[in-house]
Design a protein that fits this description.
Chain lengths: 360, 360
Amino acid sequence: MDERVREHARTLVDWSARVEAGDDVVVSVEEGAHDLGVAVAEQLGERGANLVATYSSDELTRAYLRAHDGDFDGDPDYERALYERADSVLILKGTNNTAGTADVPDERRAAHASARQGVREARLDTDWVSTQHPTRAMAQQAGMAYEQYRDFVYDATLRDWEGLAEEQARLKGLLGEGSEVRLVADGTDLTMSIAGRTAVNSAASVAYDSHNLPSGEVFTAPEDTEGVVTFDVPMTVRGRRVRDVELTFEDGVVVDIAATQGEDVIRSVVETDAGSRRLGELGIGMNRGIDRVTDNILFDEKMGGTVHLALGRAYDACLPDGESGNDSAVHEDLITTMGEGSRLAVDGETVQEDGVFVWE
Amino acid sequence: MDERVREHARTLVDWSARVEAGDDVVVSVEEGAHDLGVAVAEQLGERGANLVATYSSDELTRAYLRAHDGDFDGDPDYERALYERADSVLILKGTNNTAGTADVPDERRAAHASARQGVREARLDTDWVSTQHPTRAMAQQAGMAYEQYRDFVYDATLRDWEGLAEEQARLKGLLGEGSEVRLVADGTDLTMSIAGRTAVNSAASVAYDSHNLPSGEVFTAPEDTEGVVTFDVPMTVRGRRVRDVELTFEDGVVVDIAATQGEDVIRSVVETDAGSRRLGELGIGMNRGIDRVTDNILFDEKMGGTVHLALGRAYDACLPDGESGNDSAVHEDLITTMGEGSRLAVDGETVQEDGVFVWE
């Protein structure tokens, strides 16, 4: 076994999920994540935790959903009981085909998801963590050779998380105390209010309310956005490529949309509901192990020297207790690079210049 | 997809497990059984049943068991809850390495199994069915090419089960009414009492209390065995090859053991406890789709024209209500071919001659 697979499993079990002896752990193994599954099983055995392995496969899902008439039973009791009693759920992603459910009708998928909200909530109520085992299909999506992609994933995942959590705590402090953020970059000059909002230190551990490995970002919930932003990082949104999306905000609301590719997709996202016209998230990428875009939002948005903004739903963790932020059916992240000449400032104080934090 | 995989799934879901709309079904997918998993998911979707897929892998099990200190938690509640609430459990076997747990200490394995008796009982309380997807590893164990082994598995599995169930009902009737069975074959002349015992029509369906696909046998619980039997079918018992085992019975008890290979293994089986010196099962193979030995007891013992006898534990289904039969920690099947010159008789009436039933 590649020693990095074992190290990945150790990071997941120890740093991310904080598994202890006697914990009841569900490990969801995707069809291409077998090797990581073996390494995680070893770590769980070593800690004296319990193990139930579930199988996740787009091919099974596709076959099931296409054959079903769409009238799904609500929250099957046997599945909910499993998650309600579990302490942790470790989701080992690793698909063999990123287009594996391409011919499943959207409404079938949506009906299945909405019939299972209780199961999903029970799962989200555990110390769950989602991570990515490198597969050839993911390498292909990233436009990389397999060996090259494996190096990329482990560079992003096997970090000094404790050190990064400390660095992120610094930015979290600045954002927590601040009232206004200003972003200046090529094609971007945007201001947002963050007064009264709490920034989240997303350090790839349930101890930090962070459920993705890798992570490496600090995010908050902005409002009253004014100005223009250009998202230069190409992305796949709803299965379509989008490039150079330019959004103009007035009084917190999108008033103009342009893009060199996929403008209609962005327009349909913005027009979903009232909340999708406003920002729900400002996220600042701080993972320096991620040095390139791979068309995988879990990695792209964490890249050091980038900022992402999400149209739609805000996370409760960023809001004062009991207060709810921007609400929407969507949460669509878009990313901009903070390159030469860029600046990120809180209440007029520069925090990052030319993509480099002032403390770096 | 090979149309036979789909037909296998259909047989499993319809004939064997009798799955209906709304049923809560757990599908256990072994690492090499993915394709059958996809086909079963399709069948479950078509019927409107619910699906939870679990992952079974000797490599995960090995890693977990070897890393664990051996002090296992008893019956983890989250896993038991899943099976207690399930209607059916479909076990799709398909290993990629039949020696995948070769270096797990026996006592570790035994401790794990005994800590999980409640989970196992909950699973056995469902309409469970175990079946075999053909893998290269299983072909190798059978000494067959992959394509050839696939033909073998589907010939054994895709039968006219309804027709076979009717034929087996005939033999079940004869055994149920009879008092004494006599087996005569090369190196074999054995009599057993079956008075008051119920024969089971094992027709690969939960409707017949039969939990293996393929099946195809009628079995009962004999006692007071007298005479000699030679098991000419080579087998693997406790990981060791055995050949031409010859057992001599007096007053129902083994009094002499001989074998051309593996005699000490058979001796250790016989000497396990008081019950392992007696027979717990007489089974008569009736599946004519199985035409050769493949070193897999699930297939070998069902072969038409063979008879198997098990040392050890008897099945309750063969006994009058409330009565318990031969008890033992072991149940070890051994097989003999009913060839030229062989005869199987019930109360002196010939039922099978030269390996052919009188009604065939």
